[in-house]
């Protein structure tokens, strides 16, 4: 299929500076984790987001796993997550023996339905993980209120893009913990990669240890202890310096990358608005307090049948338009945690069945985007 595609859905950005950085790492004797570029990326993110400590990880999946380890979950503990989500958002807790409790979605934003959260809280509930879908914030006033009132740890999955905000405050600064992804489909890529943001200081010391095989190596490197040894459970969540060299180059260009992505997003919105109204199609909705990260531009078509036709129609024009998450409550694995048919999550399912994404990446030419817009505009429901 891919060789028949002229306009791919996404294309990762590698900057020239990233390649220069990479060559420096190759020439150096520090190829493993926690060298110059790992520190560079984490400091850049801490400053740019105004958040707590940033620990670079090998993926967002690993950042969520590290978060789950930090929660010290016991079997049977519950974590509220959106059903319209990536499997890693559930797996991280399942790996600890906890149960993901699936919450329905807000149809307009693709985010968790914050008004449903409280009804799902039990005495076993320990945490809420939410995704800011497309970098459009969840209603953080409500979520933070619910988390505080019920004494729950709040985790923001910010895989869809740093640098978005809510009420002028950057996403990734609201939760006790937050996670980032630098997978090659995301706004900034190191091929595979991620980060854990630690805003609640009580998690910091253990997070450093767990990220480095359960050793106190970080303290040793800072000269705070005179030998390093096994002190706790842990794993290896460090990205290599090769990855961080590429990421550092991409993050240095963040203003250019984000403003171009935003321009592409805005052009889709403006050019497709009247077509959407005529055809009963919904475009992304960005609530008042949110400034987003231009991670995805999506359409919500009236039905699954329309979406299947639409994807084939675009493919005939050599344009790749994928759908997105398949709701977890309905998945073969998810059914183990969600058996009650009476609580089918209708909106998550609707998003799974009707949402489709248009090509959006840094470097997508105006000409190619014009072709995508023309193709979409010639599709009728
Ligand atoms: C991509 C993504 C992940 C997983 O990221 P990896 O870095 O590939 O592990 C997790 N959550 C969300 C919301 C994502 O979009």
Q: What's this model, at a glance?
A:
Helices cover 38% and strands 13% of the residues.
Structure explained in plain terms:
The longest helix is centred in the C-terminal third of the chain and has 26 residues. Strand 4, helix 6 and strand 5 form a beta-alpha-beta unit. This protein has 381 residues and is an alpha/beta fold. The chain has 13 helices and 12 strands. The strands form 3 sheets. The protein has a 7-stranded mixed beta sheet, with helices on both faces.
Which secondary structure elements does this structure contain, and how are they paired or packed?
Blueprint (H helix, E strand, L loop, with lengths): L15 H12 L8 H14 L3 E5 L2 H11 L7 E5 L5 H7 L4 E5 L13 H4 L4 E7 L8 H10 L3 E5 L7 E2 L2 E2 L6 E5 L12 E5 L5 H8 L5 H5 L19 H12 L1 H26 L10 E2 L6 E3 L3 H13 L29 H9 E3 L8 H12 L4
Parallel strand pairs: 2-3, 2-4, 4-5, 5-8
Antiparallel strand pairs: 1-9, 6-7, 6-10, 8-9, 11-12
Helix pairs in contact: 1-9, 2-9, 3-4, 3-7, 10-13
Bound molecules: pyridoxal-5'-phosphate.
The site of pyridoxal-5'-phosphate has 13 residues, from helix 3 and helix 4.
